[in-house]
Amino acid sequence: MHSGEMSVFPKISLKPEVTGYLRNVFLNKEVLAAVGPQEAESRFQKLLACLSHPPSSTCVRASTHLAPLEDIRLSLEEELKKQKCGSSAEEPSVQIAPHPRITDVLLLPVDGPRAVERLSSELVVDAQCGSAVLRGAHVFAPGIVASPKYMKAGDMVSVFSDLEGRCTRGATRFQGNKVFVGNGVAEMDRSAIFVTETPARGVGVRMVDPLYKSPSFDGVLPSMVFLQNLPSVVVGHVLAPQPGERILDMCAAPGGKTCHIAALMGDKGEVVALDRIRNKIDRIRQNAQTLSLQSIKAFRFNSTQAVSDEPTQEAEGPPFPPESFDRVLLDAPCSGLGQRPNMASTWSLKEICSYPPLQRKLFQAAVRLLKKGGVLVYSTCTVTLSENEEQVAWALSTFPCLSLQPQEPHIGSEGMLGAGLSPEQLRLLQRFSPELSWEQTDTAASLARRADTDTIGFFIAKFLKT
């Protein structure tokens, strides 16, 4: 990747009030005093730029509770070679590398942005589908919002992502704010997508020449590999669950971290997964089944109410008495402003600011449910101070029984200045800050070094309860 090509997309498009709010976060007094206004502004602009682009590698969590990492790596190599049979033979095979410090992670480089010619036939997908395509997915039919009038299966089309959700479903062309994500072959006629009794399912366009090339994992070794962002895998290791323990995952859907916790315990012990939404609970159970994990018990429940002093008749499920769990993971609902690629967010400032009060309610329940001597890990996939470092400062002053603990592995940067935490406290936090290394595209840097820094925006804090 050449540094001149780093920003092929415009910076993430946010409501002006949200941009202003984030700018104040990244240019807060403590940061300005530490790095100066120029560097602070530069980091903020890099953040806005990198959020609209995908990370430079794909991270896969391997089911090392079922097979050794190297066996899984070789099987994956074989599977991905089969994918290539249809494409041009002179392409080099995909390089799959184990992560040097995380024993159940495989890394695959993402090739992009590539020079791809646009075609005259344009197909438009919604923003969520567009983001998935940038991370290696094909276009699934439900994501298609517009297509050429006479499109037939087998036609080549250029795929564009509708940034603001303004394209009318079923349109034949769209002049609004859109970005090009690559070329593909239609797998369905236009009529099969839009003129149907039941909503169309399955792959609508198979991507053959994407702007960012990474393998599609659709149906690839489902029990052996699980697509997961690197910081999300780090969370499980930081929690460090031990065989035989009872662990609570408070906001568990879709279950990636739940399954990881169970796998790290060798499936010995009990992992209780809670989520408020019924079909998300089904998804957790499905994932557990696919990965052959027996120790997971999933319940539909609002975690803010998961602790109760009145013992219930139903022995198994929530609510639970205080001090029921050895470890608690609170991967909190958040504003998600660290997700990548994300080209546009229509969220208002009010929506973004609605999360901290909910996070505190969950935190209070988490502390009560945790045994003395137990570990609580708090994480988010956002970049604000109010949902990250400020929550840590609040927790430390609200719960004298909590103390910050070192994290292993610690591959992100430290916590961000601005919440009044001491340098020692900030060093114990782990914040994945892709803006800090964005555009220093040192192609000589190893895949792992790039993978550790060019991630989604993410935050992890680890507490011990005494």
From TrEMBL:
The active site is at C381. One of its GO terms (molecular function) is RNA methyltransferase activity. PROSITE patterns: NOL1_NOP2_SUN (PS01153), PUA (PS50890), SAM_MT_RSMB_NOP (PS51686). The keyword DNA-binding does not apply. Coiled coil: none annotated. One of its GO terms (biological process) is RNA methylation. S-adenosyl-L-methionine binds at C251, A252, A253, P254, G255, G256, K257, D275, D331. Residues 160-466 form the SAM-dependent MTase RsmB/NOP-type domain. Keywords: Methyltransferase, RNA-binding, S-adenosyl-L-methionine, Transferase. It holds the Pfam family PUA. It comes from the Eukaryota. Belongs to the class I-like SAM-binding methyltransferase superfamily. RsmB/NOP family. This is SAM-dependent MTase RsmB/NOP-type domain-containing protein. The lineage of its organism: Eukaryota, Metazoa, Chordata, Craniata, Vertebrata.
